[in-house]
User: What shape does this take?
Amino acid sequence: MNDAVIEVENFRMDFGSTNVIDDLSFDVRRGETFGLLGSNGSGKTTTIRALLGIYQPTAGRLTVEGEVFSPRQGARLGYLPEERGLYRKESVEAVMVYFGRLKGLSAAEAKRFSADYLERIGMADKASVRLDKLSGGQQQKVQLGVTIMNDPSILILDEPTKGFDPVNRRLLMDLLNERRDKGATVIMITHQMDEVERLCDRVLLLKDGAAEAYGTIPEVQDQYGGRRLRISFSGHLPTSQSYRAMINEANYAELDIADDADTNAILAELINQGVQVRSFEVAPISMEEIFLQVYGSAAVAEGD
Amino acid sequence: MHNLTTVVSFEFLRTITKPKFWLLSLAVPVMIGLVVALSAFSNSTAQDTTNSSEAGFAYLDNSGLIDPAVAHAMGGTSVTDAAAARQQVIDGKLDGFLEFPADPVTEPVLIAAQDKGLFESGRYSAVANALMKQSVAQRIGDRQLATLAVQPISTDTTSYTDGQVSKGPLSLLLPGMFLILFYMAVVMLGNQMLNVTLEEKENRVTEMILTMMNPTTLIVGKVIALVLIGLLQALVVAVPGIAALFILPRTFNLPQFDLASIPIEFGPLAMGFAIFVSGFLLFAGMLVAIGAVMPSAKEAGSAFGVVVVLLFLPLYAFALIVSDPTGLVSTVFTYFPLTAPVTALLRNATGNLAWWEGLLVVGIIGTFAAIFLSVGVKLFRTGAISYNSKVSIRRALGR
Assistant: This one.
C-alpha cells in the first residue's frame, strides 16, 4: 500500500528560458515530518508553489492525496508561506473568521476557534483591534492561528521561524507538536539545521533544482560519510594523520575521522601526546556540516 | 466557483461596515442638498431684496411712456432734477435713480444705484425693464395684446424621423443615463477596482489565499462585491435626489417635473445597458491586469490615469461625434476598444447608433473585456507573488 500523502514525479519548472527545477522526484509519507532543505534559490519554494497549484509545472506530476492540488483541498491544508501577511486594515476576528470560512468552517465555528485561540495566546482583548494596530509579534501569533484553524492534516511551513521572536518560535513548536501528535503530515522548509535534526523524519536537499540527497537523517549522514570526535580536553591538541580538526578551541575540539578509523587508537594517541581528555564522544556528522559541505558557508550565512 | 460567496460577502461587508464608506457616500447627497438649500435660500433672499427695493428708487421719465401708477406701485418716486437725484445716490441718501431717455428704443436707460455686489447690482436694470413693459402694456389697453407684448408665446412642436413622430430631446434622457452611470462607475469604483489585486499583493496574503480558491474566483468575487457596493452608493445618492425631485417643487413652489412625459424606448435602453455592462467589464479587466503587474497602488496610479483619459477621450470630440456620427473620428472612436464604450453610449443616447453597429461594438468590447480579464487573472497568478517588483508580462504570460 502506498502511504505517500504527497508525490512529486519528474517535476520540471522553467521560467522562460531559465530552468529552476530539473526532473525532481520525491514523496512525503503520511504522518511524517519532512524537511525540504537547500540554499536560497535552490528551488524549495518553487516546488511548494507548484505542488499547491500556485505555479503551473512545466513538466511532471505533483499530487496531494493522489490528486493534483485544487483549492477544495485547502480545507485540509495549513500553509504558512515564507512571504506572509494578513488583511492589515481589518480586525483580528474578521480576518480569522474570513480565513476560517475559506477553509471550510462555518462562521460560528470560525468565531469559536478565534475566541479560544486568542484566549490561549493571551490576546482575547484584541479580537476587535485592527491588525495593523498590533505589534509584529502579535501579528505573527494571529498568522499562526490562521494557519492551523482548520485542524489541518497536512501542514506546509516555509521558513516557519523566519522573523519570529523566541516566544513565537516556542508557540510555533508547540502548535507543530500538537499537529504531529494528531498524525498530521508536516513539510518544513528551513535553514535551521538544529530544527531539522530535532523534528524531521526524512529530508530532501535541493541544489540547483535537483535532489542532492534524500532519505532519513541517518541515511543522509551516512551518504556524506565521516564521523566526528567531540572531545573536551586540557593541553595542546597535536596534529595527526588520524584526524582533521574541524573545530579547535582552547578546551574543545571536533575532529573529522575516517569511517574505519580506530577511535580507541586515537584516544590512546592523544593521551600519549600529553593531552588530558575530559570527555570523548563519537557522533555522526551534523546536518549543519552537511549543509556547509553541499552549499558552502555563504549559503548558511544567507539562510541566517 | 469554490468560496465565491464567502469572498463576495467578506468584501461587501467589510466595506459597508466602515464609517468612512457612509461618510463618503452620504457626502454627495449632503453636498447636493446643501447647494439646493443655499440656492433656495438665496432665491428667497433675492425675492425679498427685490420686494424691499420697491420702496426706494426715484425716476425721471423723458419718454413719456412710464405710467406713474405702475411706478408708484413698484416703489418709484418721480423727480424732475436728474443731477440732484444722482447726487442723492452718491451721498447714499437714495438707493437708486432711473433716467428714462426720450427714445428708449435707441437710447439706454441711465441708472445710478448703490453697489450691492455682483448679483444685486443688476436689479435696477430688471426694475427698469419691468416698469417700462408694464407701462407699455397699460397703454396698449387690450389685455391679450398687452400679454403678448410682454410675455413670450408658448409653442408645441411635433418633429418627424423617417416618417415617424420623433420622441424629442427627452427621449435622450434614459439612454443618456447609462453614460452618466458609466462615468460614475469609473470615478467612484476605479480606485477600488485597481486595489482588487493590489491589496492581497501589498499585504502578502496572496499565497495563502490561492491555496483556498483559484484566482478567477477571487477576482470575480471582488468585482461582484464592488458592483454591489457601487449599486448601494448609487442608491444612497439617488434616493435623496429623487425625494428632492418630488419635495422641492412643492416646498419652494418650483415647476413640477412630469416623469410620465419621459418617452421610454426599449431598443436604445437595452443597447445602452449592454454597452454599459460590457464597458464596465472592460474597465474592470484592464484595472485587474494593471494591478496584477504593478507592485503597489502608487505605481499603478499612473497607468490608471492613462486608462481613464483614453476611456473619456471621446467626450473631447463630443460635438464632432454628435454632428457627424459616421465620420472618420467617430468611426475610429466607436470601434477602438478603449474609446468604444463612451462613444457608443454617446451615439446611442443621441439616436445615432444603428442596432447592428451597437451589437458589433458590444461584441468588440465584450471580447476585449474577456481577454483583459483572462490576461489579468494569468498575470495575477504570477504577479501577486512578485511582491517587490514589476512583473515581466512576457515572462508571466509565457509561463
The mean pLDDT of chain A is 88. The longest strand of chain A covers residues 4-15. The longest helix of chain A spans residues 166-181.
